[in-house]
Amino acid sequence: MSKTITLRISEDHYEAFKKYAKQDNRKISNAIETLALRQLESAQFVDDAEMEGIMADKELCARIERGGKQGKERKGRYVE
Q1: 19-36 confidence digits (pLDDT tens)
Q2: How far apart are CA 60 and CA 58, in angstroms?
Q3: What would the 3-class secondary structure string for the chain be?
Q4: pTM for this model (two decimals)
Q5: Of 10, 31, 35, which Cα lies nearest the Cα of 19?
C-alpha cells in the first residue's frame, strides 16, 4: 500500500524537480520517488563490477566467511 509524505524543500529545489519531471514526462511526485529510489539503491548495493572484484579477492572472502561464522558462534568482537 502506498503512503503519502510531506516534503519541505526550497523553491529552487522544487523548480529543479519540476523541470526534471516535465523533461522526463512524469508527475513531480513520481520523479522525486524515482530519483530517491535510485539514490537509495546506489547507496545500499554494489554494482556488478564491484561485486566481481570482491568475489575475486579470495582472502577477503575467507575473512568475511570467518567473520560470519564467528558472529553465529557469538565469538569475536564488534567494532562500531
Answers
A1: 999 999 999 999 999 999
A2: 5
A3: CCCCCCCCCCHHHHHHHHHHHHHCCCCHHHHHHHHHHHHHHHHHCCCHHHHHHHHHCHHHHHHHHHHHHHHHCCCCCCCC
A4: 0.55
A5: 31
